[in-house]
Design brief:
This protein is mainly alpha-helical. About 30% of the residues lie in helices and about 5% in strands. The strands form two sheets. A two-stranded antiparallel sheet has the order 1-2. The radius of gyration is 47 Å and the shape is elongated.
């Protein structure tokens, strides 16, 4: 049998670079319900895993979602202490900012600002890229490609290079490109000063003593309304103004102690707000007393003609009293 002759040159064997373990990213297209989170958070070297996971969770929430310690502790298995520590880490590294605000009802609430790009002193932290293990080629010999096979075959598995943190300098100019300009920080608005407390137009010692006693006894209704002595002296003129406007002490107490917020921390500030915002208007001037109506004279039946007439006592009407006497009738009567 003759020796077989091949009409085509042998195909060059492709080199497959293999790694010794590590992660392989398998990404599927997600048309909705996804969040873009930067590697500066997920690969942060100074944050704990709890803080990284909590930061990613907060960035995936819609505006207005509750992110307080009690709500987060009800969602996840971590306790309140670990969640509070993770929130402090995120706040220290510029990923969140917590601001206390006062609502029109006088409640103190905490507003949390979440940044997908960190702000503050640690905002430009750049994570060190994790080095991938060096891939070793196969030990089998590789045939030299011919001129017709100058184009190498496509690799089966592409190894993704680490994300570059800073673009390399241009070889032609030799200058480093400028970093991107960070977004402008929103200007902080100054909170307006609270309105002054009301004062009575005609202060009296008796009214001030009643107002001071009312403020001191508020702690009997709620233990959180324990006021310092200087707060009682500061709020006494405002309560005296309510009493001057004919507000009953029980009505003032009910207004100050109704619907207290669950996280009351500054009782004096809450009472000052309610005494100013809910101040009742003064009562209008009293109307003059109308003159008494004249007494109504009752009706009586006449003893002579049985006709009704008005008189204070029973008897005869005016006609019967003025009519001449009839002798015939007198004889019949006799």
């Amino acid at each position: 049998m003759a020796e077989q002759q091949l009409s085509a040159p042998p195909r060059a064997r492709s080199v497959v670079r293999r790694t010794a373990g590590g992660v392989t990213q398998i990404s599927d297209y997600q048309p909705r319900r996804y969040t873009i989170i930067g590697d500066h958070l997920t690969q942060h070297r100074d944050l704990s895993l709890t803080a990284i996971g909590l930061g990613a969770h907060i960035q995936s929430l819609p505006d207005g979602a509750a992110v307080d310690i009690r709500t987060l502790a009800g969602k996840f298995a971590e306790g309140r202490e670990r969640i509070a520590a993770a929130l402090r880490e995120l706040e220290d590294h510029g990923y969140i900012k917590r601001i206390r605000e006062r609502t029109p009802e006088g409640r103190i609430v905490t507003r949390t600002l979440s940044y997908n790009v960190p702000r503050g002193t640690n905002a430009h932290h750049t994570p060190q890229p994790t080095g991938e293990p060096t891939a070793e080629p196969d030990t089998e010999p590789v045939a030299e490609p011919t001129a017709e096979q100058s184009a190498p075959p496509a690799p089966q598995h592409a190894v993704r290079p680490p994300a570059a943190t800073t673009p390399p300098p241009s070889p032609s100019t030799g200058t480093t490109p400028r970093p991107p300009t960070p977004p402008p920080t929103p200007a902080r608005t100054t909170r307006p000063a609270p309105p002054p407390l009301p004062h009575p137009s005609a202060p009296t010692p008796e009214r001030h003593r009643t107002a001071a006693a009312l403020l001191a006894e508020l702690r009997r209704d709620d233990a959180r309304l324990l006021l310092a002595e200087h707060d009682v002296r500061r709020l006494t003129p405002a309560v005296a103004t309510w009493l001057e406007r004919d507000a009953a002490p029980d009505a003032v107490r009910r207004t100050l102690t109704a619907d207290l917020p669950p996280d009351l921390r500054h009782p004096a500030a809450l009472l000052a707000h309610r005494l100013t915002a809910l101040l009742p208007p003064p009562l209008p001037a009293a109307r003059p007393t109308p003159p008494p109506r004249p007494a109504v004279v009752p009706l009586q039946n006449c003893d002579g003609c049985d006709r009704a007439f008005r008189a204070s006592h029973p008897g005869r009407c005016r006609d019967c009293r003025t009519a001449p006497s009839n002798p015939g009738l007198s004889g019949l009567a006799a």
